[in-house]
Design a protein that fits this description.
single chain, alpha/beta, Rossmann fold, five-stranded antiparallel β-sheet, 17 helices, 32% helix
Length: 573
């Protein structure tokens, strides 16, 4: 579909339809109800602004409804009905929002998936996605015209299910029926770092429950502006930057994730120009911005109410580095916040208090590594520091469980379990995995952490835990140290454990990327020395590769499992 840029005009929904919507004044029972109410009451207000190569492509609430209605009509013409799954694989632009909402208008189930980029392993991307398509059996796949040839090459059996964006015109309007708030609204697919992605089923009711409570915790409302480069196929992007603003009627400025990677400062430009108030970021992005944005660039970031760290282990030192670089731009300590979140709870499980600065706890490293017990210390050089993720939001409960399932007390490290009114309805077509993870009303997250004075502290994932000579370490903790070694491309390293049968334990291998072709020996020595000094841990091998070598998942994350296999299958010493 074509959309005008910021210099153009924007069509509004047909006045008779608007009057009909306004007259009904239905309560907001579904996401669709929220969209229609905003289109009726605030038709010309901008909901989303997609920035593409410097141009602004705006969607008012009326545009969103009109575009969604057109997608709904085209999908219905192609046989899509209530309960059918529709996959959406699109590049950056307004069709992301209109197609997603249009599928929901029919009571069908949309699900975003990433498209293949030149930097990804095309064979792996298409092989894994073909497996997903075969399991999901989508009624339709919405994609952009240039992607048709890729489907023809890799998934020809799905060619007759493609709806290309340039074909979404001229369909006759369809009657939109009532949607049961307890029916599945969307599928949010997990990142799939170690296995095929799982489709998290979320109902309208659970999504509305989550975003209403989470928005209340943040005091997030129609006057807020979100700045985001996050892809919408992750829960942080989908819920925090699309669904929650849509439900409450806030505004979002969306940057192309790939443009952000090449020019990270564009996010800060948007915050300054649009006076943004919220931004959700994974931990690495804080470090990336602090490192690569030129010191000569100055910004006014004083409008920001919160930069919320989420999606991966959050580090207090990362906040300190970010604050040191951007404090002069108006970033305050209390504007650096944390949320522990996951798709299986729609999004947020916890959230720190926006009126208070971030909070960390320093613990004895030996007690943590040997006994999985937190003993708070002060002034100890080798202490390990954990950043608070805050208390649970109002509709959610947490507890920590040991390996035997027993509930642990404060300070004991174990698996994080959650329950509440935002829990998912299960994994799509995966009943055995649903039963394994969702037991007696509690979701077993696979994350490890501890509670301390009602705050949650996340230490890592069960599959992130490495045991060497009876001591526990987290791969992400090793990677954080390696990232700070000069010459290592930030964010481009992975720590893995390799069984050493002759020793009866595991050995640690670090794989990293560098742009300095002659630095392999020096980097290997530096990495081993840094990790040994910081963690009293021996790294047995360091593999130094050129940029773009480390294996990633189809969603762009470095995969520990794929790189472990790559190391085990490598040729030579």
């Amino acid at each position: 579909m074509a959309y005008e840029n910021s210099e153009g005009t924007h069509p509004v929904v047909d006045p008779s339809a608007r009057d009909m919507i306004a007259a009904r004044r239905l309560p907001v029972r579904t996401i669709n109800d929220a969209m229609r109410r905003h289109a009726a009451e605030r038709p010309r207000d901008v909901f989303a602004d997609f920035r593409i190569r410097g141009a602004s492509h705006r969607l008012t609430f009326a545009d969103l409804l009109a575009g969604s209605t057109q997608y709904a009509a085209q999908c219905a013409r192609l046989g899509v009905g209530s309960g059918d799954v529709v996959i959406i694989i699109l590049d950056h632009g307004p069709d992301l929002a209109t197609s997603f909402c249009g599928v929901m208008e029919l009571g069908a189930i949309p699900s975003f998936m990433p498209y293949a980029t030149p930097k990804q392993d095309a064979a792996y991307y298409w092989a894994s996605h073909k497996k997903l398509f075969d399991r999901i059996e989508p009624k339709l796949i919405i994609t952009f015209p240039a992607n048709r040839d890729k489907f023809a090459e890799h998934c020809p059996e799905y060619l007759d299910r493609l709806l290309l964006t340039d074909a979404v015109t001229g369909a006759s309007p369809v009657t939109i029926g009532e949607i049961d708030p307890d029916q599945v609204a969307l599928l949010q697919h997990s990142s799939g770092t170690t296995s095929l992605k799982k489709g998290v089923m979320l109902t309208h009711r659970t999504i509305l429950d989550q975003v209403t409570i989470y928005a209340g915790k943040l005091d997030f409302g129609p006057d807020d502006v979100v700045a985001s480069w996050l892809p919408l196929y992750h829960d942080m992007g989908l819920i925090a930057t699309l669904m929650m603003p849509l439900v409450v009627g806030a505004r979002v400025v969306f940057l192309d994730p790939f443009e952000w990677v090449t020019r990270p400062e564009t996010l800060l430009d948007v915050i300054e120009a649009d006076r943004a108030t919220f931004c959700w970021l994974p931990n690495f992005a804080f470090s990336h911005l602090a490192r690569v944005v030129p010191a000569s660039r100055s910004f006014d970031l004083s409008s920001m109410r919160a930069f919320i760290n989420c999606s991966e282990p959050c580090k207090a030192n990362t906040f300190r580095t970010f604050l040191q670089r951007f404090g002069s731009a108006g970033v305050q300590e209390r504007s650096l916040q944390v949320s522990y979140a996951m798709a299986e709870n729609v999004f947020a499980v916890t959230q720190t208090d926006l009126s208070l600065p971030f909070k960390s706890l320093r613990a004895d490293r030996s007690a943590f590594a040997q006994r999985e017990r937190i003993e708070e210390v002060a002034g100890q050089d080798d202490a390990i520091e954990f950043l608070s993720c805050g208390p649970a939001i109002d509709n959610t409960q947490m507890r920590i469980a040991g390996k035997d399932g027993a509930v642990l007390d404060d300070g004991a490290v174990g698996e994080i379990l959650i329950r509440g009114t935002s829990l998912f309805a299960g994994y799509h077509r995966l009943p055995e995995q649903t039963a394994r993870k969702l037991r007696d009303g509690w979701y077993h997250t696979g994350d490890l952490g501890f509670l301390w004075q009602d705050h949650l502290y996340v230490t890592g994932r069960t599959d992130d835990l490495i045991t060497v000579y009876g001591r526990n370490y987290y791969a992400h903790e090793i990677e954080e140290i390696v990232n700070d070694v000069p010459g290592v491309i930030p964010g481009r390293c992975v720590a893995i454990d390799i069984p050493a049968a002759e020793l009866g334990t595991n050995q640690i291998v670090v794989m990293l990327e560098t742009r300095d072709e002659g630095a392999a020996r020096t980097l290997s020595r530096l990495v081993k020395n840094r990790v040994a000094a910081a963690m009293t841990l021996v790294v047995n091998s360091v593999v130094v590769d050129p940029p773009g070598t480390l294996a990633k998942t189809t969603s762009g994350k470095i995969s520990r499992e794929l790189n472990r296999l790559r190391y085990l299958n490598r040729e030579g010493p």
